[in-house]
Amino acid sequence: MATTIRPADWNTDRAAIRAVREAVFIREQKVDPAIEWDDQEESAQHFLVLEGDSPVGTGRITGSGKIGRMAVLQSARGSGIGLRLLESICAYARQAGLQSVYLHAQRHAEDFYRKAGFVAEGDEFIEADIPHIKMVRHFD
């Protein structure tokens, strides 16, 4: 089955984006639904990873260059989809003229982002009851 990564629109693709984020963040990681959805949803550029017609991953980038809400369904992890999604978001940021991007990485995923060229910056902090670290990637 073919895997595709494409830009997504919050209004058009909301059900698919929500399905992935609810599975990963709300059910799996026990994030409070009240804080999962924010005022950035409509203005952010979202991305969807599809296996055939089924959504298996999502992520977004805000106008400030913050990558977030990166989520891949458990059944699709370990296949490189997450890295392909991250690289697609970074390519979009470069084309938009950004010199760098940043994210709040869950500490358990820090190595994943480090392998993609991100560098930790600052101290650990708690977000959604999960330890995080700010990470930045500068483009050449």
UniProtKB/TrEMBL annotation:
<feature type="domain" description="N-acetyltransferase">
    <location>
        <begin position="3"/>
        <end position="140"/>
    </location>
</feature>
<keyword id="KW-0012">Acyltransferase</keyword>
<dbReference type="GO" id="GO:0016747">
    <property type="term" value="F:acyltransferase activity, transferring groups other than amino-acyl groups"/>
</dbReference>
<protein>
    <submittedName>
        <fullName>Predicted N-acyltransferase, GNAT family</fullName>
    </submittedName>
</protein>
<dbReference type="Pfam" id="PF13673">
    <property type="entry name" value="Acetyltransf_10"/>
</dbReference>
<dbReference type="InterPro" id="IPR016181">
    <property type="entry name" value="Acyl_CoA_acyltransferase"/>
</dbReference>
<keyword id="KW-0808">Transferase</keyword>
<dbReference type="InterPro" id="IPR050832">
    <property type="entry name" value="Bact_Acetyltransf"/>
</dbReference>
<dbReference type="InterPro" id="IPR000182">
    <property type="entry name" value="GNAT_dom"/>
</dbReference>
